[in-house]
Design a protein that fits this description.
By secondary structure, the protein is an alpha+beta fold. It has one domain: q2cbj1_9rhob like domain (Jelly Rolls, Sandwich), CATH 2.60.120.620. Helices cover 22% and strands 22% of the residues. It has 6 helices and 12 strands. The longest helix has 17 residues. The chain is globular. The protein binds 2-oxoglutaric acid. The site of 2-oxoglutaric acid has 10 residues, from strand 11 and strand 12.
Length: 234
């Protein structure tokens, strides 16, 4: 099965070593600078002495709007070539985020990204970049293969002791949940209706740093305009 057919059948594809270790290290170094400067949405109010590790290291929203390296990652030719192969059509960028997921941080309950991005027609696609090894201990991403064939589902209240978001999708029992363990530089591409989330980081000293990009097909006529402006990729 070719890579696009795998994506269409299962709703995700993992590309090993799409970024180099050196590229990941540069992104992490820049993320630390941005965190120090507190000039990115999400970390204006980071609190160095807070008890909750997510208040010390909040996720950073849309770093590409202020940081040239983050914009370069969103427009990275290897990433763009791969995602347009999976979509089978040209795309535009809509969002970037950096998750630190520090030791002992809560996870994010199961959801579909198109609940938020509301892409029509078709769906958004995520590139979830592992900036370091991600596994069961530090809260790797969990996905429900095949669930991208569902529509956008209702979000219901969920366990606030496990997730920093307080609503979740309840997948139909036909879907099993699979943990995606990844090495630094691997990228998980997944469909905007694929159900996914993550458990808390149980480690006492390991972060789980991730750079996440969201794209939509260029021909999308409708999407959540709160994410504007769109970014041309070529
Ligand atoms: O990285 C995580 O723990 C969750 C990220 C996620 O679900 C998302 O970006 O939609």
């Amino acid at each position: 099965m070719n890579v696009q057919n795998q994506y269409l059948a299962h709703g995700f594809v993992v590309c090993k070593s799409l970024l180099s270790v050196n590229e990941c290290d540069q992104i992490v170094e820049r993320a630390h600078e941005l965190h120090q400067q507190k000039n990115i949405a999400g970390c204006f109010n980071s609190k160095p002495d807070a008890e909750d590790p997510l208040e010390v290291y909040p996720r950073m929203m849309h770093p590409h709007r202020v940081d040239p390296l983050s914009l370069h990652v969103l427009r990275h030719p290897r990433i763009v070539d791969q995602l347009e192969t999976l979509l089978g059509e040209p795309a535009v960028g809509l969002q970037t985020m950096i998750y630190w997921k520090p030791p002992q941080a809560l996870g994010q309950a199961l959801h579909q990204d198109d609940f938020y991005l509301q892409t029509q027609p078709y769906s958004c696609i995520s590139a979830w970049i592992a900036l370091e090894k991600t596994d069961a201990e530090n809260g790797a991403l969990m996905i429900c293969p095949g669930s991208h064939l569902e529509p956008v589902l209702e979000m219901k209240a969920t366990d606030p002791t496990l997730s920093f978001t307080h609503t979740a999708v309840r997948p139909n029992p036909q879907y099993s949940t699979k943990m995606v363990e990844m090495e630094k530089g691997d990228i998980l591409f997944f469909h905007g209706r694929l159900i996914h989330g993550s458990l808390p980081n149980r480690s006492v000293n390991r972060f789980r740093k991730t750079f996440i990009c969201h794209y939509i097909p260029k021909r999308s006529t409708s999407y959540n305009k709160g994410y504007d402006p769109k970014v041309e990729l070529r």
